[in-house]
């Protein structure tokens, strides 16, 4: 089976699951203690992001990969395919470091470092792309959780260091 076909099947199955998840999340009733987001706010957001990712994967599967036409498939080596346990241990070490640094650096800085580390481990080597993701991930997720959903995130030692 080709990679293109696998991506399409994965996208279609994922879309079906995310739509059923959205329908289930929509049926969650608010209680008297519900905030402005409501009990179904976060599940609806997660379901929407899953559906968006599935649509993106399906659209990506339609774009012909130039690397496959230039190189034979056998010559292309999958990143981490030889040592999946090493990759898993690397991810575990990155996650443990994130959890250890979170109380000190706060959410915005820690999540940026987490995104950059995982991207590097996964094989991203374009410095500008990785740095852009690192710089934008923290504030974007902070805006979504802390500001929009009013879920307070750790600020770290920054208020003490900046005199706040």
Shape: flat
Task: Report Rg.
Answer: 20 Å
**DSSP summary, beta strand count:** 0
* String of helices and strands: HHHHHH
The largest β sheet comes out as: none
- The domain tally reads 2
Given the helix and strand composition, which structural class is it? mainly alpha
Percent range for β-strand residues: under 5%
* Unreliably modeled segments: none
Number of helical stretches of at least 4 residues:
6
What is the element layout, followed by pairings?
Layout: H1 3-26, H2 41-62, H3 66-70, H4 84-122, H5 127-148, H6 158-161
Structural description of this entry:
- The chain has six helices and no strands.
- 71% of the residues lie in helices and 0% in strands.
- The mean pLDDT is 82.
- With 164 residues, it is mainly α.
- It has helices at residues 3-26, 41-62, 66-70, 84-122, 127-148, 158-161.
- The termini are far apart.
- The chain is flat and about 60 Å long.
Descriptors:
164 residues; 2 domains
Report a brief summary of the structure.
By secondary structure, this protein is mostly helical. It has six helices and no strands. Helices cover 71% and strands 0% of the residues.
């Amino acid at each position: 089976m080709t990679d293109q076909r696998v991506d399409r099947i994965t996208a279609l199955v994922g879309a079906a699951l995310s739509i059923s998840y959205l329908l289930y999340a929509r049926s969650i009733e608010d209680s008297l203690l519900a905030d402005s987001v409501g009990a179904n706010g976060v599940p609806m957001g997660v379901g929407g992001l899953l559906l968006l990712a599935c649509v993106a994967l399906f659209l990506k599967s339609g774009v012909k990969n130039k690397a496959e036409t230039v190189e034979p498939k056998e010559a292309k080596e999958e990143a981490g395919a030889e040592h999946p346990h090493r990759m898993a241990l690397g991810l575990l070490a990155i996650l443990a470091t994130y959890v250890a640094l979170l109380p000190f650096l706060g959410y915005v800085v820690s999540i940026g470092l987490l995104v950059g580390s995982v991207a590097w481990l996964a094989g991203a080597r374009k410095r500008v792309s990785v740095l852009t993701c690192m710089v934008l991930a923290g504030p974007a997720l902070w805006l979504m959780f802390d500001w929009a959903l009013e879920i307070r995130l750790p600020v770290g030692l920054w208020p003490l260091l900046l005199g706040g």
